[in-house]
Amino acid sequence: MAEYVKIKLNGNEIELPVIEGTENEKAIDISKLRAETGYITLDDGFGNTGSCKSKITFLDGEKGILRYRGYPIDQLAEKSSFLEVSYLLNHGELPSKTELEKFERTVKEPTLPVEICALLDDFPKTAHPMGVAASAIAALSCFVPRENLDITKIDKDQVLGQLMESISIISARFFRHRQGKKIIGSDPNLSYVQNLYNMMFGEIPSDEVKKALEVLLILHADHEQNCSASAVRVIGSAQSNPYACISGGLCALWGPLHGGANQAVMEMLESIQADGGDYRKALDRAKDKEDPFRLMGFGHRVYKNFDPRAKIIKKATDTVLEQLGVEDPLLDVAKGLEKVALEDPYFVDRKLYPNVDFYSGIIYRALGIPTDMFTVMFAIGRMPGWYAQWRELVDFKGSRIARPRQVYVGENERDYILMENR
Length: 422
Ligand code: SDX
Known about the structure:
About 50% of the residues lie in helices and about 5% in strands.
């Protein structure tokens, strides 16, 4: 029996349908609200508003659950590979051996146009890697055949492969260029993660490093309708090409409240350490409403429990640092900060827990990745997820251009005042 809610407005009563997802989430479908009542809804930050129906990722913020296409994140992190997860997110099923090999070839085939390589070498060495990545991905659209910009004509797997390969080459190339080091090209004989690491550091990663990177990329691969995925969908709803959509996703991820938080966490931990390791001071600042400072890496719009990715990364951090023989005093600062925060009523009452960004930087640092490259690493992981979200949007028959309404609170009508009368 279909479920409805009744709303009484201006003496009229209307019924709005309730839809239920496969995990029993319920939503009131308000598509007809304005036509039938003249009212719209207002939801700052869209915390109560679903933007779409999706089959890609499910998360339960209260229970700390995250699944890609139904597979729990901890199982994928332990048993899968980043390329296999990328295929799963985009095709909905785990690939057969043949399907995975074919997908791997699709990712390895593309090369970066020489003009984009030249563009990368023209960026100032001080440029932020996210600005370089967003610019280069948008610029890529200028070097593909025009039909690749027509979403009704493109080979979606070919473009996915091109974007996954390009973001890794762009990131690694700029990383070495800004250090004045010799550029190392993509090696089709290496796996995706080995190739990324080799292009960055000029060596094949050890099994431990490869596994750590694989896990980090898997954990970052998708996260349903987060800020950057929503940006990709909004841009995609205008039927913009995928290069434009992904470039927009990169710009959204750059923000310190979103993917930029991993860089901000490291900078916060370093400043706490420089300040004598007094993390209670940081805590007091984070609680002070007069102080814009926030405890970076803490809190989440959806998770009101431990972010399952943070749990996996925290566990992996200890293992990776031990395997690499790295002692990082910032890990102790992070653990101390986490302990006091989780015991502090301000954080407990607001259900503020460590999120994916709180520990990830410690591992990236142990792998020799500089702080301002952390968000680019997040983006490399998120690429297949953004693309899967874009693909689901464009494949959905009946998707409409995203065009929210507003409540106008400005001046009422008034007449123009001539300069002499002002
Ligand atoms: C990511 O959405 C996703 O899925 C994102 C992501 C993904 O995989 O795509 O998971 C990746 O972006 C993780 C989040 C990384 N960002 C940070 O770590 C930045 C620090 N966190 C906060 O800025 C904040 O928690 C957000 C941005 C993550 C969430 O913001 P919300 O949901 O708008 O929370 P809010 O501002 O409404 O906070 C509710 C209360 C407020 O206090 P009161 O008004 O109730 O008194 O909690 C407070 C906030 O001031 N609060 C914090 C805090 N986070 C929330 N106070 C201090 N430090 C914090 N980190």
